[in-house]
Amino acid sequence: MSLSYYTTVNNVAFNTQYYSRQYMNNKTLIPFLVALLYLGNSNLLAFVDKKLIFGTIQFPTSIMRAPSMRIYFEGRKLSGEIEGSRLIYSLGLDTYQTYLYLLVTEVIEPQKEGNTIQYLKVPARAPYKLYALELNKEKTDDNLSEQNKQPTETHEATWNIRQVSLPRTGRVPDQAIIMLYRPDFIHTVQGGDAISLPTVMIASDVIQKAGSAQNLQDISNNLLLSCMGNLDLIHDSMHHIIKQEAKSIIALVQ
Questions:
Q1: Phi and psi (nearest 5°) for 231?
Q2: Are the C-beta atoms of residues 64 and 86 closer than 8 Å to each other?
Q3: How many CB atoms lie within 10 A of CB 237?
C-alpha cells in the first residue's frame, strides 16, 4: 500500500469528529470514505482473486526423472517442478471457471495479420491431441430430514473429459492449456478434482516409442529449444502470490 494512502486515511481519522458534526447537514461522509478506500486500494483491485489448481504429467515409474516440458496457458509460460517420474505445474483459474481445454502438440504457430497476432494455431496436418475438460463442482445431498442427525453426503468434484477436434483453421481455444510434446506419447487423461486438473498419463511404452531413454530426453530438450523463439517471446512467465484460506487456496495472478 502506498504512503499517500496511509496519510490520507490518517487525515480522515483525524477529522472524523468534524465530519460527524457536519453529517446532519452534509450526508456525503459515507460515500466519501468509500471512494477514498476504493482509490487507496486500486492496486489491489488490479489483481483478480483466482483459485490455484495443480496439474500432473505422469511418466512411467521406470523413468527415474521426468523430462522437462514447455506448458502455456492464457499467454503465459507455466513453471513446472519435476518430482521423480512426474512433472507438476500450477495455474490460476477464475473461481467461476469450470471449462478448459488441454492441447498436446509439437508445433504451435501464431496466426498474424500484419504485425498483430490474431490467435495461435496448430498447422495443417500436424499431429495433436485435444481434450475438453469440464469440472462438475462438488454437491451436497441435502434431502435428509431435519430429524436425521446423520452427516450430509458430499459428492467430490470431478472432471468430464472428452477428446475433441480443432476447427479447420487449427485455431487453439482461448482457454487451452498447451503442452509442447509428442501427442503419440500420451496414453490417456484421467482423474482430477476441485484443486487438481486431470492427470496426463504418458504411455507405459514411451521409451520404446522414443527409441531409448536418451532419445526421450533429447526429444524433450529439442522441443524446449524449438519454442525459445516466437512462442516464448509472446508468452510471459506466470507468478503467483498465494494465500491459503480454510479449505481452498486462492492465487493472485500478476
A1: -65, -45
A2: no
A3: 10
Q: Find cell 496457458 and name the residue.
A: 73
- At residue 96, φ and ψ (nearest 5 deg) are -90, -5
9 in Cβ contact with 40 (< 8 Å):
yes
Q: CA-to-CA distance for 205 and 187, rounded, in angstroms?
A: 9
Does 99 have pLDDT greater than 70? yes
Tens-digit pLDDT profile for residues 145-154: 445 555 444 4
> Residue 171 contacts by C-beta under 8 Å, 6 or more apart in sequence?
111, 119, 120, 121
**Angle, CA 98 vertex, CA 79 and CA 107 arms, to 5°:** 45
The length of the chain is 254
Residues 6+ apart with CB under 8 A from 131: 101, 102, 103, 161, 162, 163, 164, 189, 198
Convert the pLDDT of each residue in 36-74 to its tens digit.
Answer: 454 444 444 434 567 899 999 999 999 999 999 999 998
Query: 164 versus 252: which is more confidently predicted?
Result: 164
Where along the chain do its domains lie? 3-45, 49-139+150-253
Q: Write the DSSP string, 16-80.
A: HHHHHHHTTT-TTHHHHHHHHHHHHTHHHHTS-EEEEEEEEEEPPTT-SSPPP-EEEETTEEEPE
- In this structure, are strands 76-78 and 70-73 parallel, antiparallel, or unpaired? antiparallel
For residues 184 and 205, give the distance between their C-alpha atoms in angstroms, rounded to a whole number: 11
Lowest mean pLDDT among 3-12, 156-165, 208-217: 3-12
Q: What is the pTM of this model?
A: 0.69
Query: What digits encode the pLDDT tens for the residues 236-251?
Result: 544 443 333 333 444 4
